[in-house]
Amino acid sequence: MEFVELGFEILGIRNCVKKIKLGYRIIIIIALIFSISCSNDSNSPKKNINTFANGDNGSKFIEKKILFTKDSSALKTTILNEIHLKDTLKVRGNYIVFFRPDSLRFHNYSKDPHSGIYEADSDFGFGISSAIHSLTNQKKYSNIKSVVSNFRYTLILDGENGEVLIDRDSMDYGYLLTKTMQNYKYQSLDQNIISSGDYFLKQVDDYFNIKK
């Protein structure tokens, strides 16, 4: 009986040793993956970051330029010429429309490791998300709608002189401001990706003449 109990104890010790060895292996693998990831980040191309302007509230808007090499500039031209956006967004009333590329264009930009498309899209997404949150929750913006579009056309149904069709096929990132019976504002941000929601709110305040 004692021999049987001793056998179970030895078996238990062996199992514990196996688990400890497996744990060490997992830790080593995780450490290797982390070190490789850090190395890749340090070697990734950087973008220029400059101060764009000072807002009325003293905050700084950041201008981030997408860096295109000669090869990636050629790729951008090819994509704009060969991969056309589709569909139409219709708007009526007070709107700010944020423009982004569709998934097909984004995928083709991502083929160039120097295009900066992932960081640019992330920065733009952060900026417009912050702006949309303020537009949704602040009372002074209660009559202004916001929408994100990857469509080619935007049809303004109640423009200054009737219906207006905007074709933004040559633009990937930007925004459109429109108001009933008023001239619209249309701005490309392809080379100046804005990551600050305050920037967009200032454009809204100026266009709709909203006071603090």
What would the principal axes of the Cα set say about the shape? globular
Q: How many domains comprise the coordinates?
A: 2
Placed side by side, the strands forming the largest sheet appear as 5-4-8-9
Number of helices: 5
Overall pLDDT: 75
Total number of beta strands: 10
What's the end-to-end separation, in Å? Answer: 86 Å
As a percent range, the share of helical residues equals 40-55%
Structural class given helices, strands, pairing?
alpha+beta
Low-pLDDT sequence parts = 2-8, 32-71
User: What is Rg?
Assistant: 26 Å
H-E order? HEEHEEHHEEEEEEH
Q: Characterize the main sheet.
A: 4 strands, mixed
Strand content: 15-25%
Please describe what this structure looks like.
With 212 residues, this protein is of the alpha+beta class. It has 2 domains: 1-43; 49-208, no CATH class. It is 45% helix and 23% strand. It contains 5 helices and 10 strands, in the order H-E-E-H-E-E-H-H-E-E-E-E-E-E-H. The chain has helices spanning 2-43, 70-82, 103-109, 117-137, 197-208; strands at 49-54, 60-64, 88-91, 95-99, 145-149, 153-159, 162-167, 174-178, 185-188, 193-194. It has a 4-stranded mixed sheet with strand order 5-4-8-9, with helices on one face. Strands 1-2-10 form a 3-stranded antiparallel sheet. Helix 4 (117-137) packs across helix 5 (197-208). The chain is globular, with a radius of gyration of 26 Å. It starts with a helix and ends with a helix. 22% of the residues are buried.
